[in-house]
Design goal:
With 202 residues, this protein is of the alpha+beta class. The chain has five helices and six strands. The chain has one domain: GAF domain (Beta-Lactamase, 2-Layer Sandwich), CATH 3.30.450. The protein is globular.
Length: 202
């Protein structure tokens, strides 16, 4: 069996496990975190960090993911189900139209930045490091944008357009899980800061 076929089988098996686990919980954040681990583990070129020019001096490749959920009543988006983000950015909020996440929500379209250095409008949201490659896909439900999922690695050229279809598939499932598990109600304590505990499974 060739390597591509083997990789495809591995990815499909990982997706089946993640999707099955995500429908086995009643907590919307846990469901989205499960899907976040899947995309961190299976999307992108894991060898990109070893290519010349992919990392600048002092950089070490690592991957983060998370979801920004739109809160129309506050004109912002709030970070949930984050993986690899600093503790101080837990429940981070950004303006609805801010940066590339804002573009994805405004346009209801996915985006991939193979090398963020080449994107003049890219703004770094992660506080601890600049990410070299990133992807985004909107969470769509009945024609409306609920938010987006983001995936980023410090190594440049980690992601390409080839990775977008699977990210969009995960985003579609994440949207359905968010709605079916009462995501809106989960965020109902936003004004007072009352949230369910952050999922820390890993």
């Amino acid at each position: 069996m060739n390597d591509n076929r083997q990789n495809q089988k591995h990815t499909i098996a990982g997706m089946a496990t993640a999707f099955t686990e995500s429908v086995s919980t009643t907590n919307p954040e846990t469901a989205l975190t499960t899907l976040g681990h899947f995309i961190c583990d299976h999307l992108g070129d894991k060898s990109a960090g070893g290519c010349p020019g992919s990392l600048k001096p002092g950089e070490t490749d690592f991957t983060i993911s998370g979801y920004f959920i739109v809160r129309p009543e506050y004109n912002d988006m709030i970070l949930i189900s984050e993986i690899g983000w600093p503790e101080e950015q837990h429940r981070l909020t950004i303006e609805t139209g801010e940066g590339r996440p804002g573009w994805v929500v405004d346009n209801a379209a996915p985006m991939v930045l193979p090398n963020t250095d080449d994107d003049a409008t890219f703004t770094q949201i992660l506080s601890s490091a600049r990410m070299g490659s990133s992807m985004y896909a909107p969470l769509m439900w009945q024609g409306s944008v609920l938010g987006l999922v983001t995936l980023a690695s410090q190594a440049r050229y980690s992601y390409s357009n080839d990775d977008l279809p699977l990210l969009q598939l995960v985003a579609a499932h994440a949207a359905s899980m968010w709605v079916s598990l009462g995501g809106k109600e989960f965020l109902s304590g936003a004004a007072t800061g009352q949230f369910l505990p952050k999922d820390r499974n890993r």
